[in-house]
Design goal:
With about 300 residues, the chain is α+β, with helices and mostly antiparallel strands. It has 3 domains: about 1-40; about 50-85 and about 270-305, no CATH class; about 90-265, von Willebrand factor, type A domain (Rossmann fold), CATH 3.40.50. It has helices at about 5-30, 105-120, 145-150, 165-175, 200-210, 230-240, 255-265, and strands at about 50-55, 70-75, 75-80, 85, 90-95, 125-130, 135-145, 180-190, 210-215, 270, 280-290, 295-300, 300-305. β6 and β7 (about 135-145) form a beta hairpin. α2 runs antiparallel to α3 (about 145-150) and α2 packs parallel to α7 (about 255-265). The longest helix is centred in the N-terminal third of the chain and has 22 residues, at about 5-30. The radius of gyration is 25 Å and the shape is globular.
């Protein structure tokens, strides 16, 4: 008989022995049954990551801080981060408006600005591209800068603007990117006019996914296409997640993307396991020990535990 032919009978025999032990324990009323040679692995999936931008009064990033310089509390209880880094790498999800109103100078300047942004990105970064008009679609996921650029070049503006649906797809995609240090960059020139999802759901999902959001509301020569409600949405998305919102004209897109790149590279990433695992809204506070009165900290101060 060849080696290995007795494996299946042996496994069946072992299974029978284990089952016999279970039945015997049940019959005797035992509750302390220990099965031999069985390893149990418990995985804690509640890791919370907070990305923090620390700037001075001139909006310059403060570099060189260490883990011991930060104090983090979750619902008032001090936590010690398990992971800390200040250099990335980063996972960046681009959500880009390709509706018909983006044609012409807007598209040309966006293309040039994005190309420059990708060239300056760190080598370890990965990128995801979501394009949207009357519906969003995932173009490419977690690729390098050259692969994203090649995919972007094939896009052409056309159609309506499903901004809310695109944001939800972007937030959902953030759950699958590999890096703890992650952000969503939204570029659009108008408000939503064809989404199935509503504003309330977008606001809730934003705080549940814990990633910095940088909305860019692109203007044209005739002025802003955004009503007050649309501007408030973009501002709220940025403020709630520790990003910032800008409303650049088309020729300023490149410079604004450079500013976002600098902000991302200057962030500190702190990850910890919360002291309590109860579901619901939780508040985070982050402070630094040095010159705190002259520093500005941007980060997501509230998140949803599911």
């Amino acid at each position: 008989m060849r080696a290995g032919t007795n494996i299946k009978p042996r496994l069946l025999g072992t299974a029978c022995i284990v089952l016999a032990m279970v039945y015997q324990a049940q019959a005797q009323g035992s509750v302390d049954l220990v099965l031999p040679d069985i390893d149990v692995v418990k995985v804690d999936t509640t890791l919370v990551t907070i990305n923090v931008s620390v700037t001075d009064t001139r909006n310059r990033h403060l570099q060189g801080l260490k883990l011991e310089d930060f104090k983090v509390t979750d619902e008032g209880k001090t936590v010690r981060p398990e992971f800390f880094d200040s250099e990335g790498p980063e996972s960046i999800v681009f959500v880009i408006d390709v509706s018909s109103s983006m044609k012409g100078d807007k598209w040309q300047h966006l293309t040039a600005g994005l190309k420059k942004f990708l060239k300056k990105g760190a080598g370890g970064n990965d990128y995801t591209l979501i394009a949207f008009n009357e519906q969003p679609r995932l173009i490419v996921s977690t690729v390098n800068s050259e692969q994203l650029w090649q995919s972007f070049k094939s896009l052409r503006p056309d159609g309506e603007t499903a901004l809310y649906d695109a944001l939800l797809l972007g937030l959902e995609t953030l759950e699958r990117v590999p890096q703890r240090h992650k952000a969503l960059v939204l570029l659009s020139d108008g408000e939503d006019n064809s989404s199935r999802a509503g504003l309330t759901r977008v606001e809730q999902e934003t705080l549940a996914h814990r990633a910095t959001i940088y909305p860019l509301g692109i203007l044209d020569q005739t002025g802003s296409p955004y009503q007050e409600g649309g501007k408030k949405l973009l501002k709220d998305l940025a403020t709630a997640t520790g990003g910032f919102v800008l409303f650049p004209e088309a020729q300023q897109i490149g410079a604004v993307l450079e500013r976002i790149s600098a902000d991302l590279s200057g962030q500190y990433s702190l990850s910890y396991y919360p002291p309590e695992k109860t579901t619901g809204w939780r508040r985070v506070q982050v402070s630094v020990s040095q010159n705190s009165n002259h520093l500005n900290l941007r980060y997501q101060q509230r998140y949803l535990m599911r």
